[in-house]
Amino acid sequence: MRSCLSGLGLFILLTSCSLHSPIGSKGNPPTPPTQDTTGIIEGLSIPENKIKSETGIITLENGGQSLLSRLWLFDHAQKTIDIQYYSFAKDITGLIVAERVLLAADRGVKIRILIDDAASKMYSHGVQVLDSHDNIEVRIYNAGLMLGRPDRRIMMLFKNYNRILRRMHNKTVTIDGKASIMGGRNVANRYFDYDHYYNFRDRDVLLIGKTVKQITQSFDEFWNDSLTVVYTEISGAPHKKWYNDASRFDRIHKKAANTKKFSQHMREQVKEFPAYIKAATKTGAFIWTDHIVFISDKPGKNEDRKDRKGSACSDSLMNLIRLAKESVDIQSPYFILTEESKEVLTEAIQRGVRIRLLTNSLGSTDNFEAFSGYQKDREEVLKMGITIHEFKPDAKERFKLMIPEVQSKLNYKPTYGFHSKTLVIDKRITIIGSYNFDPRSANYNSECITVIRSKEMAEQLLEFVEEEFLPENSWSVSLDHNPDSKASIIKRIKVTIKKVIPKKLL
Length: 506
Description:
By secondary structure, the chain is of the alpha+beta class. It is 36% helix and 19% strand.
């Protein structure tokens, strides 16, 4: 099976072969992205009739691979780009994505950007600039906390105060209604192995074909929901003098053109995406199937449920685990039991199902609140019979993930956290998405998952999963031993303080 993943290896090689190549400088602007009018399906040499009946899928394991895949899709968009993220940062990867979106809009592509208000890390001016383009519209989900004028935000907050905890955690990008990338990554350096201090081991899946229609339908539902606000309603941006200034996009273009941050070589590698898909198709890493479904929670999740618990995603996951016969492998950055998940997992173990969990250690986590909840549950989880491994902040596999042009200058020192949300059931069913095993994903945040019923995909993904359970990548946890003491005293104090937060809110 290792040979089936050679297509992935090829693209990793293509995106990282310049370990000692020149990075460039601000004084040497890069060549602009290729303005190729070839569409996605034609550019990837996929028969048009193929995408009507099946879906092509491949996981995007490292950040460089995932970022460059997005950029190629943006460059070959012909009609539409739909972007839905919990968070969209203003760092270098956020600026690179923003510039490619602007260039697509300049070509006449219609772009819709939907981001959650509470977690937006793109400063208001940056959102306003994008929204000011004639072919780009920005909308904010559940507004009232972060973006826009204070008076308008307060008004939104009063309107939605009872929904303050219900955030949009979905992460999808869809091009021309034909290709989508969804999974655990938001738009920020740390999700693409690009940060100098802290990165995530994360996972996306690329889908081309039939299932993409389901993602578009979900996006439309959020886009048109009453909780979603046109950005100008909370910012008043059209009244600003610069809103029609022709030079208003220069700042994004200038920063994105910095080849010290994003080298000319890496820009050239975007063009290699079709070669990656071609090689992955030959090896079987890129597969076609009609046994795949995209599931998304509804906007305003649980507002129509009496107990305000559960959702389409959590219900689907629990039902799939109830049907497990042999094994359930869980990867979740945060793991906090709900009443339902405890019952379902206990019943599975009593049926003889082997359950393994990989989650963050205290040393690798970025979320002390969530870890405090997991820490409360850890002993109980072990007594239930679940095998636990905790990710190491210096996991050996990070060397496979890091972008050499970024990390070689840093001597590969950044800490790594775990952010992949993946389940493999009975070595036949794979679930990849935004869903964490915690009360927040179960009951508050809207989430999305892709369920893939394919033995081939499950076998491929299990190779990555098995590697992450190895001692060089994670610690084995028992009732007598855990790696909390290996974390700094500051982290241990922070987690202790956070234990006052009720578990149901984590």
